[in-house]
Amino acid sequence: MKKIFLLLLLCTSFSFTSSAQLNIGDSVIDIRLPDSLGKWKPLSDVKAKIILLDFWAAWCYPCVHHMPEVVELYEKYHAKGLEIYAVSLDKDYHNWVNKCRELKMPFVLVNDVYGFNGKACTDYKITSIPNKLVLKDGKIIGTNMSLNAIDQMIEKELGSE
Fold it and tell me: Using CA atoms, how far apart are residues 95 and 60, in angstroms rounded to an integer?
């Protein structure tokens, strides 16, 4: 029994390692998900110089805790060309919508009720949240970055206030 558990654990470890997140320089994969009104909002419809692709959920404490900083980034750079496309992994529609309203999130909000098993997460190889990618000209230019590092990158790309 112990050997079977260790073998299973070993196989699981390899599967996580082989599905690492997309890398800098990889092409953006389109995402097509509904917003809170059920209207489809494709990522490809977002016209911005820089897009912050943010995978999050209302049930994720670190996601919610840092969302005010994400809103600040939006307010700081939106007029200069930043858009945020926030992909929620919530299964509970009402909890998601209420959290978006509570946090006053002014950017593109979509939801994938399939969570980590949804097409967006599988395409982008997202296995944990919060998870943010910085996109420009159809390419990924930033991954696995702190909000401070994202702010510095966006400032460099778009200029400060």
Answer: 12
Name residues whose C-beta falls within 8 Å of residue 70's C-beta, 6 or more positions apart in sequence: 52, 54, 84, 86, 105, 147
Helical pair 61-77 and 93-103, crossing angle rounded to 10 deg: 50
Tokens 């992994």 identify what position? 89
Q: Which residues pair with 83 in a beta bridge?
A: 51
Handedness of CA 22, 25, 30, 36 (dihedral sign): positive
Q: What is the CA angle 5-9-12, rounded to 5?
A: 140
Alpha-carbon dihedral sign for residues 81, 54, 140, 30: negative
Ramachandran region, residue 144 (left: φ > 0; alpha: ψ -120 to 50; beta: rest): left
CATH 3.30.70.890 assigned to domain 22-158? The reply is no
| pTM higher than the cut 0.90 | no
Q: How far apart are CA 34 and CA 42, in angstroms?
A: 8
Residue environment code for 16-54, b if the CB has 16+ CB neighbours within 10 A, otherwise e:
eeeeebbeeeeebeebebeeeeeeebebeebebebbbbb
Residue range 19-73, pLDDT digits in tens = 457 889 999 999 999 998 889 999 999 999 999 999 999 999 999 999 999 999 9
